[in-house]
């Protein structure tokens, strides 16, 4: 194996994007991939602009702009669709949320349009009656994240050495693998999600369990990604919550979410919570009751303590860089994360202020071991 300039730990969408971007900058990369799939394999694969706070909006808006530049190069296996997002308002109070969301997005140069209930019904006739209206964000889309991650790795060619193994120990310039090998590089990027806690021996992240369901193949029924405007409040409400989020997949299936449950690392389905999630979905899309759900599964988002990812140099480990804690926005923000990491490693300037994502802001006071 050729000597690497950078070792990237984690073969999901974040690690693959970081490796690809660094390779584009002329770096030789060793990518360590434990093949577990993680959040990339379990998630929905949405490309959606989120504005729960200014830092999230800046990162997602920048990353979506980078995705749009790249999308013409992606093969059909990546299943990209520019379906846009319809945010659904169940009340006049939620229409006020839509108004604020539109203003925030406009400030970040993200286009959106408020719609009446009649306009929502014209776009999506199967959506429930009685809505107050909604917000259309045409620049959003979906992608099949595992295929996109593979494309990042394969398109870089020999610049990336893809090594199937797992990182067991980490020093400032060396990684010891489960196989017993030790690899060295000037820079090491930790992009292995929840595995970063054990690898670093530090409490950076909390697991945030989620559950999803997918229907049989029925052909086109829904044209847009659908999300309730109460989604943001639900996502940050307490330790356990559900909210309506649905994607039309290119296969003719409907992917249904979502639930959130902090600090539950058990992979088993929580059937009562799954039932609440599906009931919530049927409230917005009543015809779901007539469709056959063929699979349900769970996964774990890696959540930071303040909800924003950790992107940048480790505050106490020279040469170690973190790209973790993206929670449910890893696919959306992968390219902006990769841009930041690559620029910082190279000492190159950036047009975006990275202070909100610097790991030093949340350096754990206690180590795991």
Automatic annotation (TrEMBL):
Domain FAD dependent oxidoreductase residue range list: 5-343
Domain of life: Bacteria
Keywords: Oxidoreductase
The keyword Lipid metabolism appears for this protein: no
Cellular component aspect of the GO annotation: cytoplasm
Keyword Glycoprotein: no
GO MF: oxidoreductase activity
InterPro entries noted in UniProt: FAD-dep_OxRdtase, FAD/NAD-bd_sf
Identification of the protein by name: D-amino acid oxidase
Native source organism of the sequence: Pluralibacter gergoviae (Enterobacter gergoviae)
């Amino acid at each position: 194996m050729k000597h690497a300039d950078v070792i990237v730990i984690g073969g999901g969408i974040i690690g693959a994007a970081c490796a690809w971007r660094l390779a584009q900058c002329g770096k030789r990369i060793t990518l360590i991939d434990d093949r577990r799939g993680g959040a990339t394999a379990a998630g929905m694969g949405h490309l959606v602009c989120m504005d729960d706070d200014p830092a999230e909006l800046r990162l997602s808006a920048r990353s979506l702009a980078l995705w749009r530049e790249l999308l013409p190069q992606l093969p059909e296996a990546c299943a990209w669709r520019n379906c846009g997002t319809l945010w659904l308002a169940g009340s006049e109070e939620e229409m006020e949320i839509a108004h604020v969301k539109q203003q925030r997005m406009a400030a970040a140069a993200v286009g959106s349009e408020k719609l009446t209930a009649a306009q929502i019904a014209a776009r999506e006739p199967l959506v429930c009656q009685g809505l107050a209206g909604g917000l259309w964000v045409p620049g959003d889309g979906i992608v099949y994240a595992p295929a996109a991650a593979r494309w990042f790795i394969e398109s870089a060619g020999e610049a990336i050495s893809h090594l199937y193994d797992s990182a067991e120990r980490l020093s400032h310039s060396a990684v010891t693998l489960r196989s017993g090998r030790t690899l060295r590089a000037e820079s090491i990027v930790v992009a292995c999600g929840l595995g970063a806690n054990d690898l670093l021996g530090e409490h950076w992240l909390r697991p945030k369990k989620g559950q999803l369901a997918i229907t049989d193949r029925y052909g086109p029924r829904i044209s847009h990604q659908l999300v309730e405007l109460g989604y943001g409040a639900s996502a940050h409400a307490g330790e356990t919550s559900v909210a309506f989020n649905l994607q039309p997949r290119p296969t003719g299936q409907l992917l249904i979410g979502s639930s959130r449950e902090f600090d539950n690392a058990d992979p088993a389905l929580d059937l009562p919570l799954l039932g609440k999630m599906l009931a919530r979905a049927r409230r917005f899309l009543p015809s779901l009751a007539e469709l056959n759900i063929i699979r349900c599964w769970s996964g774990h988002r890696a959540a930071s303590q303040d909800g924003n990812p950790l992107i940048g140099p480790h505050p106490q480990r020279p040469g170690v860089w973190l790209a973790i804690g993206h929670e449910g926005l890893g696919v959306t923000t992968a390219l902006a994360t990769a841009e930041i990491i690559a620029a910082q490693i190279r000492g190159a300037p950036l047009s975006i202020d990275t202070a909100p994502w610097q790991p030093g802001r949340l350096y754990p006071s206690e180590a795991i071991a």
